[in-house]
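Morning run. Coffee first, then this:
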Amino acid sequence: MATSRARGAPAAPRRTLTPQPAYVLQRHDWSESSLIVELFTRGLGRVVTVARGAKKPTSSYRPLLLPFQPVTVLLGAPPKAAEAGDADRELLPLRSAEWAGGQPLVRGAALFSAFYLNELLLKGLARQDAHPALFDAYAAALAALASLAGPARDEAAVLRAFELALLRETGLLPDLSVATLTAEPLAEDGSYALDATHGLVPAAQGPSGARWTALEAALSLAGGPERFDALQAACTGVAGALRKPLQGLLHYHLGHTPMRTREVLQGVQKLQVP
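And here it is:
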């Protein structure tokens, strides 16, 4: 016969379920009716969840669990160690999902850039490691991509701004206001290069010290859309020069496997050439 809890003894703590702002990064089939969904949440970071019945025609999840649209999710506790293996313990049951709204959707050619952001998050973040400021930067980047229109749209500054935010939030970006090896302030009119192993160093060619300092000033602002707007503005005009060093830094830390979204985009561009 089970023994009752002693009078006055504290009750076992219960896990409080808190709604989380989230975006879908990718999804996979799990069964004939269910999906495994990778989410980027503001409070829990990158998580993997089981959306049971999400593939059924009548499921309310079908129009919600799609990339690039904001949702609010309620996640359950992971299975107990005695009931699941190590891999299964990372699966958080999806209790509910609702459309958060308030943001235009990314469309057209800008979708390639949006999928590139998702791939960066999948490769660059450990699971269940929260980065609220990076979540805000991701939401701002999607909004910026959705607002771009016309043949003259410039997505490069948006991408460079998000790469900088990702590198800074994961601790992989040095202080951009000083030379890394000497810790001396940058000369405004000097040229500097960002090296994966030596940090920011003087160079014959590269963005000026004033440019790097402006980028650091934008990165140092409090999180939110204003911070990303300032970072995007700081990248405008120098995005081309930043592309190679930032991607070199990303490849150094995240691995040299080519980004699939870039390979697909390059293939599409080749098909469009007469």
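The beta strands are 20-29, 35-41, 45-51, 71-75, 91-99, 192-195, 199-202. Good start to the day.
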